[in-house]
Design brief:
Largest sheet: 9 strands, mixed
Helix content: 25-40%
Shape: globular
Distance between the termini: 18 Å
Structural class: alpha+beta
Length: about 400
């Protein structure tokens, strides 16, 4: 079975992409989604977050929610707002966010290769979130939320995708956040075969975002195999968008803590000095390299922290991550925060919000301190996945995000 293959996508009809595309289902609350769809009857949020069309307070996991999503999808197909490609194709997907541009391929990725770890993961998943995605996929009969993948250096693939973008786009829309999403369809069977072969030659693909969607796809595929689906069925694939790893952008995932435990700000700084070189800063610190951190304390104070030489383990791809180093040398020994997944004393702030959000949360008194981080690098994520290990929680914040609604993979 090929690592990826073309598929007949369900996608916006000509000229309808701007009416349809929406943020990923898991970045908005139900209330935020309701506000976003005002005056937008064809927003994909009606499919990805269908509780917005039911009475406020409806349990988002109620059977009626999944049924409403399926009904909304059918309505958009019946109204010719969404149309299915006649023949299997690959799709070139470009995202433009300011000066940042990344160009990748939309494909049906192999569940079998996910199951054998050729499509590699780096996060744990939660059963309740998997259950939600399984119910959604089965209810609507499609993979509507793409899994974000990274592929290792492949100049020939990059060149083929670039050539495809010389044609007129088949869909082009700018979302309300200013991010542009552009799609080209690759109909040419020869180019499709070259792309399939090029990906088959790759040792692995890497999940950047979408661990619950891919895990749910594996469960759906297994259930469909038991029901008689063969290896070539769409149910044995999942919707994926793969970008070259060198084009993808990870923003820092900053940390804020509610209190300093038994420490005063001064004693906390003194304790940090055992493992860090500390320099006061006259402005917000945005670390410029690995093993460097910003520390913001009450009173508007900023400090630059540099981990002292010899404290970075060379062999362990997880232990050498900045998020791991901060935990080992500050959060755990000095603040007693040993389980960041569950400890209510720590919170996480995506880098898209900037250091101003850290200053705001400390100034309000909600938080006692904030740490600005250097972003995890894609090569570090790939090293963790290659070692079959798991990243610490909230290690990566990918930006820009994929849009829901640009393509969907029907199960049948």
């Amino acid at each position: 079975m090929s690592l990826i293959r073309p598929f007949a996508a369900l996608r916006p009809a000509t000229g309808r992409a701007a009416d349809i595309i929406a943020p990923p289902y898991d970045v908005l609350s139900s209330d935020e989604a309701r506000a976003r769809v005002a005056g937008r009857p064809w927003s994909f949020l009606h499919i990805s977050k269908p509780e917005i069309d039911l009475p406020a307070g409806t349990d988002v996991h109620a059977p009626a929610v999944y049924a409403k999503g399926a009904a909304n999808l059918r309505a958009m197909i019946d109204a010719d707002v969404l149309a299915r490609e006649v023949m299997p194709c690959y799709y070139v997907y470009r995202i433009t966010m300011g000066a940042h541009v990344q160009t990748g391929i939309v494909a049906a990725a192999s569940v079998a290769d996910y199951d054998t770890n050729r499509i590699r993961k780096h996060e744990f998943t939660r059963p309740d979130k998997e259950d939600d995605r399984v119910r959604q996929i089965e209810a609507v009969g499609a993979h509507t939320g793409p899994v974000l993948l990274a592929y290792p250096a492949a100049p020939a693939v990059d060149a083929m995708l670039s050539r495809a973008t010389e044609a007129t786009p088949d869909a082009d829309a700018t979302a309300d956040d200013g991010i542009r999403h552009t799609l080209w369809v690759i109909h040419d069977a020869g180019v499709q075969a070259q792309l399939t072969a090029a990906f088959d030659a790759m040792p692995a693909l890497y999940i950047a975002d979408g661990h619950h969607r891919s895990a749910a796809a594996s469960r759906v595929a297994a259930a469909r195999r038991k029901a008689g689906d063969g290896p070539d069925a769409n149910s044995q694939r999942f919707l994926a968008v793969a970008f070259p790893h060198h084009q993808m952008r990870i923003l820092p995932y900053n940390r804020v803590v509610r209190d300093l435990g038994t420490h005063t700000p001064e004693s906390f700084l003194a304790a940090l000095a055992a493992d860090f070189e500390i320099t006061p800063a006259d402005r917000a610190v945005e670390p410029a390299q690995a093993t460097e951190f910003g520390l913001h304390l009450s009173g508007g104070r900023w400090f630059r922290l540099r981990l002292k030489a010899g404290l970075v383990p060379a062999a362990d791809p997880v232990a050498r991550l900045d998020v791991s180093l901060l935990a080992k040398h500050a959060l755990e020994p000095l603040l007693g925060i040993v389980d960041p997944r569950r400890d209510p004393r720590i919170d996480f702030v995506g880098g898209i919000r900037g250091v101003a959000e850290l200053e705001k949360r400390v100034a309000s008194g909600e938080m006692a301190a904030a740490f600005s981080m250097y972003p995890t690098q894609l090569v570090d994520l790939m090293a963790v996945a290659d070692a079959d290990q798991v990243m610490p929680p909230k290690s990566t914040w990918f930006e820009p995000k994929l849009a829901d609604g640009m393509t969907s993979l029907m199960l049948d």
